[in-house]
């Protein structure tokens, strides 16, 4: 029997319903599975269904946590789940089944989440659309001919389509915030190392990559961060702990914050008028909330910005080489996408280049820290362009330079804060005349997710977005 109003509830409300015996965890799981089976043929957001294993866990009784019984998807990118397949969006990992859990998977289970499958990702998360030779195109529920973003596009499409209220996502250059923008969701990238990367590595992309979620409500994101944040055993570093639980920040007065508005892309690309309009709209909402809003500037030297590719390229090479070694052979062009093959076979940075790249990452962090000596928040577009048609940024093309130039429009405002390590969030406050969501990007000082949750919650109350449903939705 369908659960009345399922897609109108966020994860915490569904968990309350389970706790008060209004619905069972197994009923919620079956609801999510039925919705996935119904809508996924249109959006292609869910791969590797773990339905039988999820049913066994639900029937046996899930741990008592803040999200007990809430259906959940892991992103198909480095989030290990023992005994269940994971491909990283790549043919070379097509038959890979890990033998242990990622620390985040362990924490998701402890929170009571009902993990029933994986959401799609592009190969190794290295582009801003979720398309791959292995799994095909993930489509945006707001317009099936447009991207859901990347690399957490499957997670965002599944949440936007009402399959579940919140889903795992990760962000190495914008991969939580870009899909959230494309699909009309709240997407918070936490502070560097806020959530664990272990047990196999200490950090991803020299600390630029971090793990969290996309969600319909701000409070789900806050509560999930409460449940998963903190260093794991042997973590190399960890940011300052919060003053109070992040869930307690929801509904709290954001205070008399000074907001610096930037509408010029850090990498020099031209920003689409729709994205500028979204920022202007958000700035006006902030003024109505009593915040001090003014134009600001932040310059990131080009030599620092481009240095990050001397982290991403060798990281991708190592992923391919290590998997090929597990298979007992050399990698070949049929293992990976054409752009990936070019990337790993191009001249690789030297050890000295890698050291200079990590210095650049840290230098960007110091520049950004200087900005926040004068401001409490930064406001920018999330992307320099609206959600774009499918086929524009897929890795199945033959020009690595053109790929980089095109990707620049998607990460123009986001990747700086992966390098700097600051928390940042895309908030859905604007839809253009084509009916496509255009996210607005807020950035806070290092370690200050609290301010993002407070402003996100205030804007959510001022202009609620969760009731907006795309044309392709599991309610239909």
Brief sketch in words of this structure:
The protein has 476 residues and is an alpha+beta fold. It has 15 helices and 15 strands.
Q: Can you tell me about this structure?
A:
The chain is an alpha+beta fold and about 475 residues long. The chain is built from 15 helices and 15 strands. An 8-stranded mixed beta sheet has the order 8-10-9-14-15-13-11-12, with helices on both faces. Strands 1-3-2 form a 3-stranded mixed beta sheet. Strand 14 and strand 15 (about 435-445) form a beta hairpin. The longest helix is centred in the C-terminal third of the chain and has 21 residues, at about 350-370. The model has no long low-confidence stretch (mean pLDDT about 95).
């Amino acid at each position: 029997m369908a659960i009345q109003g399922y897609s109108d509830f966020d994860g915490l409300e569904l968990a309350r319903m389970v706790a008060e015996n209004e619905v069972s965890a197994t009923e919620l799981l079956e609801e999510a599975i039925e919705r996935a089976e119904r809508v996924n043929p249109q959006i292609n957001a869910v791969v590797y269904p773990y339905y039988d294993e999820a049913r066994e866990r639900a029937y046996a009784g899930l741990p008592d946590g803040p999200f007990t019984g809430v259906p959940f998807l892991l992103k198909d990118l480095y989030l290990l789940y023992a005994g269940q397949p994971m491909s990283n969006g790549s043919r070379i990992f097509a038959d890979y089944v890990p033998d242990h859990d990622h620390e985040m998977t362990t924490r998701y289970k402890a929170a009571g989440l009902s993990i029933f499958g994986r959401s799609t990702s592009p190969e190794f998360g290295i582009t801003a659309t979720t398309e791959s030779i292995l799994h095909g195109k993930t489509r945006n529920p707001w317009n099936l001919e447009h991207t859901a973003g990347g690399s957490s596009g499957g997670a965002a499409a599944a949440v936007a389509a009402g399959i579940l209220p919140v889903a795992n996502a990760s962000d190495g250059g914008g991969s939580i915030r870009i899909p959230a923008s494309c699909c009309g969701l709240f997407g918070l990238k936490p502070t560097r190392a806020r959530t664990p990367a272990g047990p196999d590595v200490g950090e991803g992309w020299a600390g630029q990559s971090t793990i969290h979620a996309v969600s319909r409500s701000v409070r789900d994101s806050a509560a999930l961060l409460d449940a998963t944040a903190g260093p794991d055993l042997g973590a190399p570093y960890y940011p300052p702990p919060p003053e109070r639980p992040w869930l307690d920040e929801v509904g709290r007065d954001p205070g008399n914050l000074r907001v610096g508005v930037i509408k010029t892309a850090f990498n020099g690309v031209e920003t689409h008028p729709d994205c500028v309009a979204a920022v202007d709209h958000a700035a006006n909402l902030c003024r109505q909330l009593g915040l001090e809003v003014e134009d600001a500037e932040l310059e990131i030297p080009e030599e620092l910005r481009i240095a990050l590719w001397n982290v991403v390229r060798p990281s991708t090479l190592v992923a391919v080489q290590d998997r090929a070694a597990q298979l007992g052979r050399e990698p070949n062009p049929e293992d990976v996408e054409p752009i990936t093959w070019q990337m790993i076979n191009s001249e690789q940075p030297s050890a000295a280049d890698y050291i200079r790249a990590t210095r650049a990452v840290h230098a960007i962090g110091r520049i950004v820290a200087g900005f926040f000596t004068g401001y409490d928040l930064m406001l920018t577009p999330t992307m320099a362009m609206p959600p774009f048609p499918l086929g524009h940024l897929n890795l199945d093309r033959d020009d690595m330079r053109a790929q980089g130039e095109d990707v620049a429009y998607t990460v123009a405002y986001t990747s700086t804060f992966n390098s700097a390590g600051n928390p940042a969030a895309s908030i859905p406050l604007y839809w253009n005349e084509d009916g496509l969501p255009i996210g607005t990007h807020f950035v806070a000082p290092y370690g200050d997710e609290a301010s993002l949750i407070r402003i996100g919650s205030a804007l959510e109350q001022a202009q609620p977005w969760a009731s907006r449903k795309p044309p392709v939705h599991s309610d239909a």
